[in-house]
Each structure stands twice: as C-alpha cells, then as structure tokens.
Specification:
The protein has a two-stranded antiparallel ribbon with strand order 1-2. The N terminus is likely disordered. The two termini are 19 Å apart. The chain is built from 10 helices and 2 strands. The chain has 156 residues and is mostly helical.
C-alpha cells in the first residue's frame, strides 16, 4: 500500500487539523521553515509531513495548505477528486476516470479476500484528441493514480 493509504488509517483528522493550525499560523500554509520550527509537534501527530512534504505539496508552491494535507491524509479517492477538480470541463472523461479508480479499488479488495482477479490489458489506455485538449494533463493524473495505488513503480 502507498504511504497515503497507510496514513488514512493511522491519522486522526481532528488532531491533524489542530496540528496544522498550530504550525501554519495565520498564513494558513505550512512552509519548510515551519517544518524545522515545529518538528517535534509534527513528529507526534503526522511524521509523514516531514518525509513527504514535496509529495503533499500538490501545486508545487513549497507550501502545504490544509486542502493539500487533507487530500494526502484522506487517501487516493480524495486525492483524485482534488486533481479532477483542477481540470476544467471533460466531465464524461472525469467520470470514466472515477469509474476506473473504483474498479481498481474493488479488484484490490477482491484480491485481499482471496478471489482471483483477471488483469490482462486492464491498464492499457490511448489518449487521443486535438492539441491542447488536456491529454497529457489527464495522462499524468492517471500515471500518478496508478503509482499511488501501487500498480506501477514510478509516476513518470
């Protein structure tokens, strides 16, 4: 399982929010300097923040907002919704991606209970369309999704 999925089971979201408010202060963002200043408190509540700061920082601003931390701690479903909310339009495709994610989660649950699950060709996709229609952006989201749920070893 991925770190994000493990965190979902281990973290108390109320305690996480309280820690976030203490560390972020009035700025509402956790910076790298805040990690150093509040290292002990962060280690008590959510040590993964220290280890995976850049992964939690979804918009690459070198800060972590509550929304980003909540998405990371909440698991892959919450992460996927956050990512899809950033995409304008393409509602049918976003619904297909949600269904794809749901089928992967269900297959993993079936495997965990001892059922045989056929996987042949399931993860093969073709993104086609005119230039500038979001093919690469959505392909990156799919790659990150497959990485986060442990299907592939790299999201590159």
């Amino acid at each position: 399982k991925s770190t994000a999925e493990e965190c979902k089971r281990e973290v108390d979201m109320v305690q996480l929010r309280k820690m976030f408010d203490e560390v972020a202060g009035p700025a509402g963002q956790i910076r790298v300097a805040d990690l150093v200043k509040h290292k002990t408190r962060i280690q008590q509540v959510f040590p993964v923040l220290l280890e995976k700061f850049s992964e939690i920082d979804l918009n690459n601003t070198s800060t972590v907002s509550w929304a980003e931390l909540e998405v990371f701690a909440g698991g892959t479903g919450e992460w996927l919704e956050y990512q899809l909310d950033q995409v304008i339009g393409l509602e049918l495709l976003k619904q297909q991606i949600r269904q794809f994610h749901h089928s992967i989660v269900m297959d993993q649950k079936r495997r965990d209970t001892g059922h045989h699950v056929k996987v042949v060709g399931k993860y093969h996709m073709i993104f086609q369309g005119n230039p500038g229609t979001g093919k690469t952006s959505l392909a990156r989201i799919i790659a990150q999704l497959l990485y986060r749920i442990g299907i592939i070893k790299s999201d590159l």
